[in-house]
Design goal:
- The protein is mainly alpha-helical and about 100 residues long.
- About 35% of the residues lie in helices and about 5% in strands.
- The chain is built from 4 helices and 2 strands.
- Helix 2 crosses helix 4.
Length: about 100
């Protein structure tokens, strides 16, 4: 697969994406939109024992961090329940990196 450019239309999984907005919408629908409910989630015990000033309230994810994580994936590994392979993530990294930072 060739490297994809942000300025051209893309075909991902057979879906034609004409611009960054449609790519963003595609990724959102693929990864976020599910029919799951939170009804079956177990309760989680509070384990943080620090003070309010020690709570992690913000963090910064840079493009370099995301790019390095994608580049460090092992190729040809089995996909997860989302059916997205590491090969696909690595090949699409030039296109999806900034979307993964959101």
């Amino acid at each position: 697969m060739s490297t994809l450019s942000h300025s051209h239309s893309h075909s991902v999984l057979g879906v034609l994406l004409l611009n960054r907005h449609s790519l963003n919408t595609f990724l959102h629908l693929f990864f976020v939109s599910t029919n799951e409910t939170t009804d079956s989630l177990p309760s989680v015990a509070q384990t943080f024992r620090g003070t309010d000033t020690e709570i992690l309230s913000s963090f910064k994810v840079t493009m370099e961090i995301v790019r390095n994580k994608l580049a460090g994936l092992k190729r040809n590994k089995a996909h997860g329940v989302d059916r997205v392979s590491t090969n696909m993530l690595m090949e699409l990294s030039p296109v999806i990196t900034d979307h993964l930072m959101l």
